[in-house]
């Protein structure tokens, strides 16, 4: 048997795409049959640590090809696949808790003006995003970081009422390149909740919001307009940003688990506290 050449270089490429994504249906003219070798005896070391890949390296034309999704996980990146365009996206993972450079005095101040939440598609995945239309379009920093967009060196602005940090669309164009986030048409929800996937909890939160959209107290009509709900680190606790008759409030909502008659777990709002964040500012 001909001796295989040594590992001369590594190409991080989806040669083993079947291990990461659906094969799909491809036109005959884009396929090319090649002879390659699986080398389970090859060792892979990432950042000084030996790792055991589920799928061994594949050797073709004197190059080694590794399963992109597995390797990306060890490199601290995420991999997304868009079937319609046959595109693999490798995105750097940004720690949402990383400190922001500078101090409060370095931030320009903006105020909430026509804020709205929506889902946006970016590099193969969909994300909830809060957008504020002040003197220009601003994106909330925590949402941008969740999308894997690095904001090092970009100018930040602090919102007056919520004290949350934002980045202008003009600044973000410097790192978006030719593929900015787009409004998602596949994932539309009238109430955007970040960080929560449990259907029972989402149902309880939406029910709570809906029952307070229109209230009439002593001939005074109160119209509530939801902006966004954010899941907090405390279990079953959420921060709810809204307006009542155009005035901004933040409500902390706590869910309580309950057991239904059919022994299934459900949730109800156990408590809520409302704060006028616009008062005195």
UniProtKB/TrEMBL annotation:
<dbReference type="InterPro" id="IPR036582">
    <property type="entry name" value="Mao_N_sf"/>
</dbReference>
<dbReference type="InterPro" id="IPR012854">
    <property type="entry name" value="Cu_amine_oxidase-like_N"/>
</dbReference>
<feature type="signal peptide">
    <location>
        <begin position="1"/>
        <end position="22"/>
    </location>
</feature>
<dbReference type="Pfam" id="PF07833">
    <property type="entry name" value="Cu_amine_oxidN1"/>
</dbReference>
<feature type="domain" description="Copper amine oxidase-like N-terminal">
    <location>
        <begin position="45"/>
        <end position="90"/>
    </location>
</feature>
<protein>
    <submittedName>
        <fullName>Stalk domain-containing protein</fullName>
    </submittedName>
</protein>
<keyword id="KW-0732">Signal</keyword>
């Amino acid at each position: 048997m001909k001796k295989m050449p040594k590992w001369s270089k590594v190409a991080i490429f989806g040669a083993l795409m079947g291990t990461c994504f659906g094969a799909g249906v491809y036109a005959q003219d884009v396929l090319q049959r090649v002879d390659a070798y699986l080398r389970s005896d090859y060792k892979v070391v990432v950042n000084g640590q030996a790792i055991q890949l589920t799928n061994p390296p594949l050797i073709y034309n004197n190059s080694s090809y590794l399963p992109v999704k597995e390797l990306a996980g060890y490199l601290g990146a995420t991999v997304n696949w868009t079937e319609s365009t046959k595109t693999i996206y490798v995105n750097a993972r940004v720690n949402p808790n990383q400190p922001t450079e500078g101090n409060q005095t370095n931030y320009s101040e903006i105020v909430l003006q026509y804020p709205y939440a929506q889902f946006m598609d970016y590099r193969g995945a969909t994300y909830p995003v809060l957008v504020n239309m002040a003197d220009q379009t601003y994106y909330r920093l925590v949402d941008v970081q969740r999308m894997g967009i690095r904001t090092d060196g970009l100018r930040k602005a602090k919102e007056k009422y919520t004290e949350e940090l934002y980045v202008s669309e003009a600044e973000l164009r410097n790192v978006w390149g030719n593929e900015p986030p787009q409004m998602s048409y596949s994932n539309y929800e009238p109430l955007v909740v970040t960080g929560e996937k449990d259907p029972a909890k989402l149902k309880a939160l939406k029910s709570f919001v809906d029952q307070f959209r229109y209230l009439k107290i002593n001939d005074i009509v109160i119209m509530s307009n939801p902006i966004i709900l954010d899941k907090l680190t405390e279990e079953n606790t959420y921060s709810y940003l809204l307006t009542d008759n155009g005035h901004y409030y933040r409500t902390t909502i706590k869910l309580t688990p309950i057991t239904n008659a059919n022994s299934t777990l459900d949730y109800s709002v156990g408590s809520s506290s409302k704060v006028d964040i616009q008062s005195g500012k």
